[in-house]
Design brief:
With about 90 residues, the protein is mainly α. It has a domain of about 50 residues. The chain contains 3 helices and no strands. The longest helix has 21 residues. It starts with a helix and ends in a 15-residue tail after the last helix.
């Protein structure tokens, strides 16, 4: 299973058919691209806004920023739009 398939399955939808060209060879790890990292940042951001626990929201927002920064490194510093930070409770 590729990184994108696992991500799509975790959301309960499959947006794209299997792409064998993106599949790592045996023993190799899949390297997420800008789109993958931006999508992970958005997922974490959404969940951080929905979290009932402030500590959970804070950790999810930390992950959001990490994925956003990693994506930016792959696209000449372009930060993906992740929306607003979760409100403090």
């Amino acid at each position: 299973m590729t990184f994108r398939q696992a991500l799509a399955e975790s959301r309960g939808v499959c947006e794209q058919p299997f792409d064998a060209s993106r599949s790592p060879q045996r023993g190799e790890q899949m390297q997420p691209d800008y789109k993958d990292l931006a999508e992970l940042a958005l997922i974490c951001a959404r969940h951080s806004r929905l979290a009932e626990s402030e500590s959970v929201a804070s950790e999810l927002w930390r992950l959001t920023k990490d994925y956003q920064e990693r994506a930016a490194k792959l696209d000449r510093g372009t930060l993906p739009d992740i929306g607003h930070a979760p409100y403090s409770r």
